[in-house]
Amino acid sequence: MEGRHSHPSTPIPDDFVQKRGKKRGSYNCGRCGLPKKGHVCDLTKEFSEVPTPTSSDAKSFVLPSPLSVVRTKPTPPLPPPRQAVPQLRRALSFDDIGVTDDDEGEGEGEGEFLDFESELDLGGSGKLPANCLWEVFKRLPPSSLLSSAKVCKGWRDVSRRIWKSAEELRLEVPVKAQIGLVGSVLQKCPGLVKLSLRMKSDVDATMLACIAFSCPNLDSLEILTSDTSVNRITGDELGRFVADKRCLTNLKMEGCSNLRGFTLSSTSLSTLCLSELFCHSKMVFNCPNLKEISLIFSRQENENTDLTAMMNGLGRSCPRLQNIHVASVRLTHAVVLALTAANLRGLRMLSLILGSEITDASVAAIASSYSRLELLDLSGSSISDSGIGMICNVLPETLLKLLLALCPNITSSGIQFAAAQLPNLELMDCGMSICDPDLDSPAAQENDNVELQRTPSSKLHLIYQKLIIKHSHLKKLSLWGCSGLDALYLNCPELSDLNLNSCMNLNPGRLLLQCPNLESVHASGCQDALVETLRNQVCGDFMAEDDHFPCKRLPDGSKRIRVPHSYSPQPFDDGKRKRRLSKQRCAVLVY
Protein backbone atom coordinates (compact mmCIF):
# COMPACT_ATOMS: atom_id res chain seq x y z
CA MET A 1 0.00 0.00 0.00
CA GLU A 2 3.02 2.25 0.31
CA GLY A 3 3.23 2.65 -3.47
CA ARG A 4 -0.41 3.64 -3.60
CA HIS A 5 -0.05 6.94 -1.55
CA SER A 6 2.15 9.97 -2.16
CA HIS A 7 4.54 11.05 0.67
CA PRO A 8 3.20 14.22 2.39
CA SER A 9 6.65 15.82 2.82
CA THR A 10 7.57 15.61 -0.82
CA PRO A 11 8.11 19.16 -2.17
CA ILE A 12 6.16 20.28 -5.23
CA PRO A 13 8.36 21.32 -8.17
CA ASP A 14 7.95 24.85 -9.53
CA ASP A 15 7.26 23.71 -13.07
CA PHE A 16 4.47 21.50 -11.81
CA VAL A 17 2.90 24.43 -9.99
CA GLN A 18 2.77 26.32 -13.27
CA LYS A 19 1.11 23.43 -15.01
CA ARG A 20 -1.32 23.06 -12.12
CA GLY A 21 -2.92 26.31 -13.07
CA LYS A 22 -4.01 24.80 -16.39
CA LYS A 23 -5.94 22.00 -14.57
CA ARG A 24 -4.44 19.41 -16.85
CA GLY A 25 -4.13 16.57 -14.30
CA SER A 26 -3.31 15.42 -10.79
CA TYR A 27 -0.84 13.17 -8.99
CA ASN A 28 -2.66 10.09 -10.24
CA CYS A 29 -1.52 8.07 -13.22
CA GLY A 30 -3.41 8.85 -16.39
CA ARG A 31 -3.58 5.17 -17.34
CA CYS A 32 -4.52 3.21 -14.22
CA GLY A 33 -5.48 5.93 -11.73
CA LEU A 34 -2.79 5.05 -9.16
CA PRO A 35 -0.54 7.72 -7.59
CA LYS A 36 2.46 8.58 -9.74
CA LYS A 37 4.93 8.64 -6.76
CA GLY A 38 7.31 5.73 -7.28
CA HIS A 39 4.84 4.12 -9.64
CA VAL A 40 5.61 2.23 -12.84
CA CYS A 41 2.43 1.71 -14.84
CA ASP A 42 1.81 -1.90 -15.78
CA LEU A 43 -0.36 -0.87 -18.72
CA THR A 44 2.50 0.78 -20.65
CA LYS A 45 3.60 -2.44 -22.20
CA GLU A 46 0.05 -3.44 -22.91
CA PHE A 47 -0.74 -0.14 -24.64
CA SER A 48 2.45 -0.24 -26.68
CA GLU A 49 1.52 -3.68 -27.99
CA VAL A 50 -2.00 -2.58 -28.86
CA PRO A 51 -1.64 0.93 -30.33
CA THR A 52 -5.33 1.45 -31.09
CA PRO A 53 -7.77 0.70 -28.25
CA THR A 54 -11.14 -0.66 -29.22
CA SER A 55 -14.35 1.12 -28.43
CA SER A 56 -15.42 -1.68 -26.08
CA ASP A 57 -12.20 -1.26 -24.04
CA ALA A 58 -12.68 2.49 -23.91
CA LYS A 59 -16.22 2.15 -22.68
CA SER A 60 -15.35 -0.49 -20.08
CA PHE A 61 -12.36 1.47 -18.73
CA VAL A 62 -13.45 3.04 -15.41
CA LEU A 63 -11.94 6.40 -14.58
CA PRO A 64 -11.65 7.54 -10.95
CA SER A 65 -12.26 11.25 -11.54
CA PRO A 66 -12.83 13.71 -14.38
CA LEU A 67 -9.37 15.21 -13.90
CA SER A 68 -7.80 11.90 -14.77
CA VAL A 69 -9.33 11.96 -18.24
CA VAL A 70 -6.27 13.67 -19.68
CA ARG A 71 -4.30 12.77 -22.79
CA THR A 72 -0.91 12.70 -21.17
CA LYS A 73 2.32 12.23 -23.03
CA PRO A 74 4.46 9.76 -21.06
CA THR A 75 7.67 8.59 -22.60
CA PRO A 76 6.61 5.62 -24.74
CA PRO A 77 8.90 2.72 -25.58
CA LEU A 78 11.06 3.27 -28.63
CA PRO A 79 9.11 2.24 -31.73
CA PRO A 80 10.67 0.15 -34.47
CA PRO A 81 12.17 2.02 -37.46
CA ARG A 82 9.65 3.83 -39.71
CA GLN A 83 6.80 3.18 -37.29
CA ALA A 84 4.83 6.12 -35.96
CA VAL A 85 4.39 6.52 -32.21
CA PRO A 86 0.88 5.27 -31.42
CA GLN A 87 -1.54 7.94 -30.33
CA LEU A 88 -3.45 6.58 -27.38
CA ARG A 89 -6.62 7.84 -25.82
CA ARG A 90 -7.98 9.48 -29.01
CA ALA A 91 -11.13 8.22 -30.66
CA LEU A 92 -10.35 9.88 -34.02
CA SER A 93 -7.01 10.85 -35.51
CA PHE A 94 -6.40 13.26 -38.36
CA ASP A 95 -2.63 13.59 -38.34
CA ASP A 96 -1.93 11.53 -41.45
CA ILE A 97 -4.14 13.53 -43.80
CA GLY A 98 -2.19 14.64 -46.84
CA VAL A 99 -3.05 18.32 -46.53
CA THR A 100 -0.94 21.06 -44.96
CA ASP A 101 -2.31 21.98 -41.55
CA ASP A 102 -1.47 25.40 -40.21
CA ASP A 103 -3.09 24.75 -36.83
CA GLU A 104 -1.11 21.79 -35.53
CA GLY A 105 -0.29 23.53 -32.26
CA GLU A 106 -3.89 24.19 -31.32
CA GLY A 107 -4.39 20.67 -30.04
CA GLU A 108 -2.09 21.27 -27.05
CA GLY A 109 -4.52 23.64 -25.42
CA GLU A 110 -8.09 22.89 -26.41
CA GLY A 111 -7.95 19.29 -27.53
CA GLU A 112 -6.27 17.69 -24.48
CA PHE A 113 -9.43 16.49 -22.77
CA LEU A 114 -11.24 13.56 -24.29
CA ASP A 115 -14.91 12.95 -23.65
CA PHE A 116 -15.54 9.22 -23.92
CA GLU A 117 -19.30 9.77 -23.91
CA SER A 118 -19.09 11.60 -27.23
CA GLU A 119 -17.08 8.91 -29.04
CA LEU A 120 -18.61 7.32 -32.10
CA ASP A 121 -19.28 3.63 -32.24
CA LEU A 122 -17.14 2.65 -35.22
CA GLY A 123 -17.90 -1.06 -35.33
CA GLY A 124 -15.63 -1.99 -32.39
CA SER A 125 -12.45 -0.39 -33.76
CA GLY A 126 -12.78 2.85 -31.76
CA LYS A 127 -10.87 4.78 -34.43
CA LEU A 128 -11.85 5.86 -37.95
CA PRO A 129 -8.92 5.85 -40.40
CA ALA A 130 -8.02 9.38 -41.30
CA ASN A 131 -7.81 8.69 -45.00
CA CYS A 132 -11.34 7.28 -44.92
CA LEU A 133 -12.67 10.32 -43.08
CA TRP A 134 -10.96 12.59 -45.59
CA GLU A 135 -12.50 10.73 -48.52
CA VAL A 136 -15.96 10.90 -46.92
CA PHE A 137 -15.74 14.61 -46.17
CA LYS A 138 -14.39 15.31 -49.63
CA ARG A 139 -17.61 13.96 -51.17
CA LEU A 140 -20.02 15.86 -48.94
CA PRO A 141 -22.06 18.75 -50.35
CA PRO A 142 -21.22 22.18 -48.94
CA SER A 143 -24.23 22.24 -46.59
CA SER A 144 -23.34 18.87 -45.04
CA LEU A 145 -19.70 19.87 -44.75
CA LEU A 146 -20.71 22.95 -42.77
CA SER A 147 -22.87 20.83 -40.48
CA SER A 148 -20.14 18.26 -39.89
CA ALA A 149 -17.90 20.95 -38.42
CA LYS A 150 -20.28 21.21 -35.45
CA VAL A 151 -19.78 17.62 -34.29
CA CYS A 152 -16.39 17.86 -32.57
CA LYS A 153 -13.05 19.60 -32.80
CA GLY A 154 -11.51 16.84 -34.88
CA TRP A 155 -14.27 16.99 -37.45
CA ARG A 156 -14.05 20.77 -37.43
CA ASP A 157 -10.34 20.57 -38.20
CA VAL A 158 -10.89 18.18 -41.09
CA SER A 159 -13.73 20.31 -42.40
CA ARG A 160 -11.48 23.39 -42.29
CA ARG A 161 -8.76 21.53 -44.16
CA ILE A 162 -11.27 20.45 -46.81
CA TRP A 163 -12.35 24.05 -47.34
CA LYS A 164 -8.75 25.26 -47.52
CA SER A 165 -7.75 22.63 -50.06
CA ALA A 166 -10.89 23.06 -52.23
CA GLU A 167 -10.18 24.14 -55.79
CA GLU A 168 -13.67 23.68 -57.26
CA LEU A 169 -16.96 24.61 -55.65
CA ARG A 170 -20.56 24.30 -56.85
CA LEU A 171 -23.21 26.14 -54.84
CA GLU A 172 -26.96 26.53 -55.15
CA VAL A 173 -28.05 29.83 -53.65
CA PRO A 174 -31.62 29.71 -52.21
CA VAL A 175 -34.29 32.25 -52.96
CA LYS A 176 -34.05 34.24 -49.72
CA ALA A 177 -30.31 33.83 -49.20
CA GLN A 178 -28.31 36.92 -48.35
CA ILE A 179 -25.00 37.91 -49.87
CA GLY A 180 -23.28 37.36 -46.51
CA LEU A 181 -23.99 33.63 -46.66
CA VAL A 182 -22.22 33.25 -49.99
CA GLY A 183 -19.37 35.45 -48.80
CA SER A 184 -18.82 33.41 -45.63
CA VAL A 185 -18.61 30.21 -47.65
CA LEU A 186 -16.26 31.66 -50.25
CA GLN A 187 -13.89 33.02 -47.59
CA LYS A 188 -13.35 29.47 -46.37
CA CYS A 189 -11.77 28.60 -49.74
CA PRO A 190 -8.74 30.85 -50.26
CA GLY A 191 -7.38 28.54 -52.96
CA LEU A 192 -10.56 28.34 -55.03
CA VAL A 193 -9.97 28.37 -58.78
CA LYS A 194 -13.31 27.15 -60.17
CA LEU A 195 -16.70 28.40 -58.96
CA SER A 196 -20.19 27.50 -60.15
CA LEU A 197 -23.26 29.28 -58.72
CA ARG A 198 -26.82 28.21 -59.45
CA MET A 199 -28.84 31.22 -58.48
CA LYS A 200 -32.43 30.94 -57.29
CA SER A 201 -32.31 34.50 -56.06
CA ASP A 202 -31.51 37.67 -57.97
CA VAL A 203 -27.89 38.37 -58.83
CA ASP A 204 -26.35 41.82 -59.20
CA ALA A 205 -23.02 43.62 -58.98
CA THR A 206 -22.79 42.94 -55.23
CA MET A 207 -22.33 39.26 -55.97
CA LEU A 208 -19.55 40.02 -58.43
CA ALA A 209 -17.82 42.20 -55.84
CA CYS A 210 -18.08 39.43 -53.24
CA ILE A 211 -16.57 36.90 -55.67
CA ALA A 212 -13.76 39.26 -56.64
CA PHE A 213 -12.85 39.90 -52.98
CA SER A 214 -13.12 36.31 -51.72
CA CYS A 215 -11.54 34.48 -54.68
CA PRO A 216 -8.37 36.29 -55.75
CA ASN A 217 -7.08 33.34 -57.80
CA LEU A 218 -10.32 32.49 -59.55
CA ASP A 219 -9.78 30.84 -62.92
CA SER A 220 -13.32 29.80 -63.94
CA LEU A 221 -16.68 31.35 -63.05
CA GLU A 222 -20.12 30.00 -63.93
CA ILE A 223 -23.36 31.77 -62.96
CA LEU A 224 -26.54 29.87 -63.80
CA THR A 225 -30.00 31.35 -63.34
CA SER A 226 -33.41 29.77 -62.77
CA ASP A 227 -37.04 30.74 -63.28
CA THR A 228 -37.12 32.51 -59.91
CA SER A 229 -34.00 34.62 -60.41
CA VAL A 230 -33.17 37.72 -62.43
CA ASN A 231 -29.69 38.70 -63.55
CA ARG A 232 -29.38 42.46 -62.95
CA ILE A 233 -25.70 42.76 -63.86
CA THR A 234 -25.07 45.50 -66.40
CA GLY A 235 -22.47 45.60 -69.13
CA ASP A 236 -20.24 48.14 -67.36
CA GLU A 237 -20.21 46.07 -64.16
CA LEU A 238 -19.30 42.90 -66.02
CA GLY A 239 -16.59 44.74 -67.95
CA ARG A 240 -14.96 45.99 -64.71
CA PHE A 241 -15.09 42.52 -63.18
CA VAL A 242 -13.41 40.90 -66.19
CA ALA A 243 -10.75 43.61 -66.35
CA ASP A 244 -9.89 43.25 -62.63
CA LYS A 245 -9.72 39.41 -62.61
CA ARG A 246 -6.46 38.93 -64.45
CA CYS A 247 -6.43 35.17 -63.73
CA LEU A 248 -9.89 34.53 -65.16
CA THR A 249 -9.82 32.25 -68.21
CA ASN A 250 -13.36 30.83 -68.32
CA LEU A 251 -16.58 32.84 -67.90
CA LYS A 252 -20.12 31.52 -68.37
CA MET A 253 -23.19 33.55 -67.46
CA GLU A 254 -26.90 33.08 -68.08
CA GLY A 255 -29.69 35.63 -68.13
CA CYS A 256 -27.67 38.45 -69.70
CA SER A 257 -30.69 40.45 -70.84
CA ASN A 258 -29.65 43.53 -68.85
CA LEU A 259 -26.13 43.85 -70.18
CA ARG A 260 -27.15 46.10 -73.08
CA GLY A 261 -23.87 47.52 -74.37
CA PHE A 262 -20.58 46.22 -72.97
CA THR A 263 -16.85 46.06 -73.60
CA LEU A 264 -14.85 43.07 -72.37
CA SER A 265 -11.09 43.52 -72.20
CA SER A 266 -8.91 40.71 -70.91
CA THR A 267 -5.59 39.15 -71.86
CA SER A 268 -6.27 35.91 -69.95
CA LEU A 269 -9.84 35.10 -71.00
CA SER A 270 -9.96 32.07 -73.32
CA THR A 271 -13.59 30.87 -73.05
CA LEU A 272 -16.69 33.08 -72.97
CA CYS A 273 -20.33 31.93 -72.88
CA LEU A 274 -23.21 34.42 -72.60
CA SER A 275 -26.86 33.47 -73.02
CA GLU A 276 -30.22 35.26 -73.27
CA LEU A 277 -28.63 38.33 -74.83
CA PHE A 278 -31.16 40.94 -75.91
CA CYS A 279 -30.92 44.19 -77.87
CA HIS A 280 -27.26 45.04 -77.42
CA SER A 281 -26.25 48.35 -78.85
CA LYS A 282 -22.52 47.67 -78.48
CA MET A 283 -20.60 44.42 -78.15
CA VAL A 284 -16.81 44.80 -78.09
CA PHE A 285 -14.43 41.96 -77.28
CA ASN A 286 -10.80 42.95 -76.69
CA CYS A 287 -9.57 39.47 -75.84
CA PRO A 288 -6.50 38.53 -77.90
CA ASN A 289 -6.26 35.06 -76.31
CA LEU A 290 -9.94 34.16 -76.66
CA LYS A 291 -10.30 30.72 -78.24
CA GLU A 292 -13.96 29.84 -77.71
CA ILE A 293 -17.03 32.06 -77.71
CA SER A 294 -20.71 31.15 -77.34
CA LEU A 295 -23.40 33.82 -77.75
CA ILE A 296 -27.06 32.82 -77.43
CA PHE A 297 -29.53 35.59 -78.19
CA SER A 298 -33.16 35.91 -77.25
CA ARG A 299 -35.71 34.65 -79.77
CA GLN A 300 -38.04 37.60 -79.30
CA GLU A 301 -39.19 39.39 -82.42
CA ASN A 302 -37.93 42.80 -81.31
CA GLU A 303 -34.36 41.58 -80.76
CA ASN A 304 -32.23 43.87 -82.96
CA THR A 305 -28.57 43.30 -82.13
CA ASP A 306 -26.24 44.16 -85.02
CA LEU A 307 -24.52 40.81 -85.57
CA THR A 308 -22.62 42.01 -88.63
CA ALA A 309 -20.72 44.63 -86.63
CA MET A 310 -20.10 42.10 -83.90
CA MET A 311 -18.54 39.62 -86.37
CA ASN A 312 -16.32 42.33 -87.81
CA GLY A 313 -15.09 43.15 -84.30
CA LEU A 314 -14.37 39.50 -83.50
CA GLY A 315 -12.12 39.20 -86.50
CA ARG A 316 -10.04 42.23 -85.50
CA SER A 317 -9.72 41.76 -81.72
CA CYS A 318 -9.89 37.96 -81.29
CA PRO A 319 -7.56 36.47 -83.91
CA ARG A 320 -7.05 33.17 -82.08
CA LEU A 321 -10.65 32.05 -82.10
CA GLN A 322 -11.10 28.31 -82.67
CA ASN A 323 -14.73 27.68 -81.70
CA ILE A 324 -17.63 30.00 -82.53
CA HIS A 325 -21.23 29.31 -81.49
CA VAL A 326 -23.94 31.86 -82.25
CA ALA A 327 -27.67 31.18 -81.91
CA SER A 328 -29.92 33.95 -83.18
CA VAL A 329 -32.88 34.44 -85.47
CA ARG A 330 -31.03 37.50 -86.85
CA LEU A 331 -28.35 35.43 -88.55
CA THR A 332 -28.24 36.26 -92.25
CA HIS A 333 -26.01 35.80 -95.26
CA ALA A 334 -24.43 39.21 -94.54
CA VAL A 335 -23.35 37.99 -91.09
CA VAL A 336 -21.71 34.95 -92.68
CA LEU A 337 -19.86 37.16 -95.14
CA ALA A 338 -18.58 39.31 -92.28
CA LEU A 339 -17.35 36.16 -90.53
CA THR A 340 -15.56 34.88 -93.61
CA ALA A 341 -13.91 38.27 -94.10
CA ALA A 342 -12.42 38.01 -90.60
CA ASN A 343 -10.09 35.28 -91.89
CA LEU A 344 -9.79 33.33 -88.64
CA ARG A 345 -7.17 30.81 -89.67
CA GLY A 346 -7.42 28.73 -86.52
CA LEU A 347 -11.18 28.21 -86.71
CA ARG A 348 -12.09 24.55 -86.18
CA MET A 349 -15.70 24.56 -84.95
CA LEU A 350 -18.43 26.77 -86.39
CA SER A 351 -22.03 26.72 -85.19
CA LEU A 352 -24.59 29.16 -86.62
CA ILE A 353 -28.04 28.14 -85.36
CA LEU A 354 -31.56 29.38 -86.14
CA GLY A 355 -30.47 31.45 -89.12
CA SER A 356 -33.31 30.85 -91.54
CA GLU A 357 -31.72 33.29 -94.02
CA ILE A 358 -28.53 31.24 -94.28
CA THR A 359 -28.62 29.60 -97.72
CA ASP A 360 -26.39 27.58 -100.02
CA ALA A 361 -24.53 30.79 -100.91
CA SER A 362 -23.58 31.12 -97.26
CA VAL A 363 -22.30 27.54 -97.29
CA ALA A 364 -20.16 28.34 -100.32
CA ALA A 365 -18.62 31.32 -98.50
CA ILE A 366 -17.88 29.22 -95.42
CA ALA A 367 -16.36 26.40 -97.47
CA SER A 368 -14.11 28.75 -99.39
CA SER A 369 -12.74 30.49 -96.27
CA TYR A 370 -12.54 27.71 -93.68
CA SER A 371 -11.38 24.42 -95.15
CA ARG A 372 -10.19 22.83 -91.89
CA LEU A 373 -13.43 22.72 -89.94
CA GLU A 374 -13.97 19.73 -87.68
CA LEU A 375 -17.51 20.66 -86.61
CA LEU A 376 -20.15 22.45 -88.67
CA ASP A 377 -23.59 23.17 -87.24
CA LEU A 378 -26.10 24.93 -89.51
CA SER A 379 -29.24 23.76 -87.74
CA GLY A 380 -32.31 25.84 -88.54
CA SER A 381 -30.92 27.13 -91.82
CA SER A 382 -32.37 26.98 -95.34
CA ILE A 383 -29.60 25.01 -97.03
CA SER A 384 -30.46 22.20 -99.45
CA ASP A 385 -28.78 19.09 -100.81
CA SER A 386 -26.60 21.35 -102.98
CA GLY A 387 -25.14 22.95 -99.88
CA ILE A 388 -24.39 19.50 -98.47
CA GLY A 389 -22.54 18.71 -101.69
CA MET A 390 -20.36 21.82 -101.24
CA ILE A 391 -19.52 20.77 -97.69
CA CYS A 392 -18.51 17.29 -98.83
CA ASN A 393 -16.33 18.64 -101.64
CA VAL A 394 -14.32 20.98 -99.38
CA LEU A 395 -14.24 19.09 -96.05
CA PRO A 396 -13.96 15.40 -96.94
CA GLU A 397 -11.04 14.59 -94.61
CA THR A 398 -11.33 17.00 -91.67
CA LEU A 399 -15.06 17.16 -90.85
CA LEU A 400 -15.96 14.96 -87.85
CA LYS A 401 -19.35 16.34 -86.79
CA LEU A 402 -22.15 17.58 -89.04
CA LEU A 403 -25.38 18.93 -87.56
CA LEU A 404 -28.22 19.85 -89.91
CA ALA A 405 -31.29 19.65 -87.68
CA LEU A 406 -34.39 21.68 -88.53
CA CYS A 407 -33.34 22.09 -92.15
CA PRO A 408 -36.55 21.46 -94.12
CA ASN A 409 -34.93 21.68 -97.57
CA ILE A 410 -32.64 18.66 -97.29
CA THR A 411 -33.73 15.12 -98.19
CA SER A 412 -32.56 11.60 -97.49
CA SER A 413 -30.48 11.70 -100.68
CA GLY A 414 -28.37 14.56 -99.31
CA ILE A 415 -27.86 12.74 -96.01
CA GLN A 416 -26.79 9.56 -97.80
CA PHE A 417 -24.38 11.56 -99.95
CA ALA A 418 -22.82 13.18 -96.87
CA ALA A 419 -22.37 9.78 -95.18
CA ALA A 420 -20.70 8.39 -98.29
CA GLN A 421 -18.38 11.37 -98.96
CA LEU A 422 -17.26 12.08 -95.36
CA PRO A 423 -15.29 8.99 -94.30
CA ASN A 424 -14.15 10.38 -90.91
CA LEU A 425 -17.60 11.51 -89.79
CA GLU A 426 -18.39 10.52 -86.20
CA LEU A 427 -21.61 12.42 -85.45
CA MET A 428 -24.53 13.38 -87.67
CA ASP A 429 -27.73 15.12 -86.54
CA CYS A 430 -30.55 15.46 -89.07
CA GLY A 431 -33.47 15.79 -86.68
CA MET A 432 -36.69 17.33 -88.01
CA SER A 433 -35.22 17.50 -91.49
CA ILE A 434 -36.97 14.60 -93.23
CA CYS A 435 -40.45 15.43 -92.07
CA ASP A 436 -43.92 16.22 -93.31
CA PRO A 437 -45.23 19.45 -91.72
CA ASP A 438 -48.84 18.33 -92.26
CA LEU A 439 -48.31 15.30 -90.00
CA ASP A 440 -47.16 17.25 -86.97
CA SER A 441 -50.57 18.55 -85.94
CA PRO A 442 -52.86 16.39 -83.76
CA ALA A 443 -55.72 16.66 -86.25
CA ALA A 444 -53.56 15.25 -89.01
CA GLN A 445 -52.48 12.35 -86.80
CA GLU A 446 -56.10 11.41 -86.13
CA ASN A 447 -57.00 11.48 -89.83
CA ASP A 448 -53.96 9.85 -91.41
CA ASN A 449 -55.90 8.04 -94.10
CA VAL A 450 -57.85 11.12 -95.18
CA GLU A 451 -54.71 13.26 -95.35
CA LEU A 452 -52.81 10.68 -97.36
CA GLN A 453 -55.63 10.50 -99.91
CA ARG A 454 -55.55 14.27 -100.31
CA THR A 455 -51.76 14.48 -100.59
CA PRO A 456 -50.66 15.19 -104.17
CA SER A 457 -48.40 12.68 -105.86
CA SER A 458 -45.62 15.25 -106.24
CA LYS A 459 -45.30 15.45 -102.47
CA LEU A 460 -45.35 11.74 -101.71
CA HIS A 461 -41.63 11.38 -102.43
CA LEU A 462 -40.95 13.89 -99.63
CA ILE A 463 -43.06 11.95 -97.12
CA TYR A 464 -42.06 8.35 -97.85
CA GLN A 465 -38.28 8.46 -97.95
CA LYS A 466 -35.77 5.71 -97.29
CA LEU A 467 -32.35 6.20 -95.79
CA ILE A 468 -29.42 3.83 -96.35
CA ILE A 469 -26.18 4.57 -94.49
CA LYS A 470 -23.05 2.44 -94.53
CA HIS A 471 -20.24 4.02 -92.57
CA SER A 472 -17.25 2.58 -90.73
CA HIS A 473 -16.59 5.43 -88.26
CA LEU A 474 -20.01 6.88 -87.47
CA LYS A 475 -20.70 6.70 -83.70
CA LYS A 476 -23.83 8.80 -83.17
CA LEU A 477 -26.78 9.32 -85.50
CA SER A 478 -29.81 11.44 -84.68
CA LEU A 479 -32.99 11.27 -86.78
CA TRP A 480 -35.43 12.60 -84.20
CA GLY A 481 -38.69 13.97 -85.57
CA CYS A 482 -38.15 12.60 -89.10
CA SER A 483 -41.81 11.83 -89.69
CA GLY A 484 -41.24 11.52 -93.43
CA LEU A 485 -38.85 8.58 -93.02
CA ASP A 486 -40.36 5.28 -94.15
CA ALA A 487 -37.38 2.88 -94.39
CA LEU A 488 -34.03 2.78 -92.61
CA TYR A 489 -31.02 0.53 -93.30
CA LEU A 490 -27.88 1.04 -91.22
CA ASN A 491 -24.58 -0.78 -91.53
CA CYS A 492 -22.37 1.06 -89.03
CA PRO A 493 -20.10 -1.18 -86.94
CA GLU A 494 -18.99 1.69 -84.64
CA LEU A 495 -22.45 3.19 -84.06
CA SER A 496 -23.24 3.39 -80.33
CA ASP A 497 -26.16 5.85 -80.08
CA LEU A 498 -29.21 6.05 -82.35
CA ASN A 499 -32.03 8.57 -81.87
CA LEU A 500 -35.35 7.69 -83.54
CA ASN A 501 -37.67 9.71 -81.34
CA SER A 502 -40.96 10.69 -83.05
CA CYS A 503 -40.23 8.75 -86.24
CA MET A 504 -43.92 7.99 -86.49
CA ASN A 505 -44.05 6.70 -90.07
CA LEU A 506 -41.02 4.41 -89.95
CA ASN A 507 -42.17 1.00 -91.17
CA PRO A 508 -41.08 -1.87 -88.84
CA GLY A 509 -40.82 -4.20 -91.84
CA ARG A 510 -38.37 -1.84 -93.56
CA LEU A 511 -35.96 -1.46 -90.67
CA LEU A 512 -32.57 -3.19 -90.61
CA LEU A 513 -29.82 -2.41 -88.12
CA GLN A 514 -26.40 -3.99 -88.56
CA CYS A 515 -24.66 -2.21 -85.70
CA PRO A 516 -22.94 -4.67 -83.35
CA ASN A 517 -21.67 -1.97 -80.94
CA LEU A 518 -25.02 -0.24 -80.48
CA GLU A 519 -25.58 0.71 -76.82
CA SER A 520 -28.74 2.83 -76.78
CA VAL A 521 -31.67 3.43 -79.11
CA HIS A 522 -34.12 6.25 -78.35
CA ALA A 523 -37.61 5.41 -79.60
CA SER A 524 -40.03 7.72 -77.80
CA GLY A 525 -43.14 8.56 -79.80
CA CYS A 526 -42.71 5.59 -82.17
CA GLN A 527 -45.17 2.82 -82.97
CA ASP A 528 -45.31 -0.13 -80.59
CA ALA A 529 -44.54 -2.48 -83.47
CA LEU A 530 -41.42 -0.48 -84.29
CA VAL A 531 -40.24 -0.58 -80.68
CA GLU A 532 -40.72 -4.35 -80.60
CA THR A 533 -38.79 -4.74 -83.85
CA LEU A 534 -35.94 -2.66 -82.47
CA ARG A 535 -35.73 -4.80 -79.36
CA ASN A 536 -35.76 -8.01 -81.35
CA GLN A 537 -32.97 -6.86 -83.64
CA VAL A 538 -30.57 -5.34 -81.14
CA CYS A 539 -31.17 -7.91 -78.39
CA GLY A 540 -31.15 -10.82 -80.83
CA ASP A 541 -27.69 -9.86 -82.09
CA PHE A 542 -26.46 -9.63 -78.52
CA MET A 543 -27.73 -13.08 -77.55
CA ALA A 544 -26.35 -14.64 -80.71
CA GLU A 545 -22.88 -13.26 -80.03
CA ASP A 546 -22.98 -14.04 -76.33
CA ASP A 547 -23.84 -17.72 -76.95
CA HIS A 548 -20.96 -18.36 -79.33
CA PHE A 549 -18.40 -21.01 -78.36
CA PRO A 550 -15.94 -22.93 -80.56
CA CYS A 551 -16.76 -26.52 -81.38
CA LYS A 552 -14.44 -29.51 -81.47
CA ARG A 553 -14.86 -32.96 -82.97
CA LEU A 554 -14.08 -36.03 -80.90
CA PRO A 555 -11.09 -38.19 -81.96
CA ASP A 556 -13.39 -40.81 -83.47
CA GLY A 557 -15.27 -38.15 -85.42
CA SER A 558 -18.61 -39.25 -84.01
CA LYS A 559 -20.02 -36.00 -82.68
CA ARG A 560 -19.21 -32.39 -81.83
CA ILE A 561 -19.03 -30.99 -78.35
CA ARG A 562 -18.73 -27.47 -77.00
CA VAL A 563 -15.58 -26.65 -75.11
CA PRO A 564 -14.48 -23.50 -73.30
CA HIS A 565 -11.80 -21.33 -74.85
CA SER A 566 -9.33 -22.29 -72.15
CA TYR A 567 -9.41 -25.94 -73.31
CA SER A 568 -9.35 -25.22 -77.02
CA PRO A 569 -6.05 -25.98 -78.77
CA GLN A 570 -6.71 -23.23 -81.29
CA PRO A 571 -5.18 -19.83 -80.54
CA PHE A 572 -7.59 -17.29 -79.13
CA ASP A 573 -7.37 -13.53 -79.33
CA ASP A 574 -7.58 -12.14 -75.79
CA GLY A 575 -8.41 -8.67 -77.11
CA LYS A 576 -11.50 -9.89 -78.91
CA ARG A 577 -12.54 -11.87 -75.87
CA LYS A 578 -12.28 -8.82 -73.61
CA ARG A 579 -14.25 -6.71 -76.06
CA ARG A 580 -16.99 -9.33 -76.28
CA LEU A 581 -17.17 -9.89 -72.52
CA SER A 582 -17.23 -6.14 -71.82
CA LYS A 583 -20.02 -5.51 -74.32
CA GLN A 584 -23.25 -4.36 -72.71
CA ARG A 585 -26.74 -5.19 -73.76
CA CYS A 586 -28.29 -2.51 -75.97
CA ALA A 587 -31.08 -0.51 -74.32
CA VAL A 588 -34.19 0.64 -76.20
CA LEU A 589 -35.29 3.80 -74.39
CA VAL A 590 -38.98 4.73 -74.49
CA TYR A 591 -39.94 7.62 -72.19
TrEMBL record:
<dbReference type="InterPro" id="IPR036047">
    <property type="entry name" value="F-box-like_dom_sf"/>
</dbReference>
<dbReference type="InterPro" id="IPR001810">
    <property type="entry name" value="F-box_dom"/>
</dbReference>
<dbReference type="InterPro" id="IPR050648">
    <property type="entry name" value="F-box_LRR-repeat"/>
</dbReference>
<protein>
    <recommendedName>
        <fullName>F-box domain-containing protein</fullName>
    </recommendedName>
</protein>
<feature type="domain" description="F-box">
    <location>
        <begin position="127"/>
        <end position="166"/>
    </location>
</feature>
<feature type="region of interest" description="Disordered">
    <location>
        <begin position="1"/>
        <end position="28"/>
    </location>
</feature>
<dbReference type="InterPro" id="IPR032675">
    <property type="entry name" value="LRR_dom_sf"/>
</dbReference>
<dbReference type="Pfam" id="PF00646">
    <property type="entry name" value="F-box"/>
</dbReference>
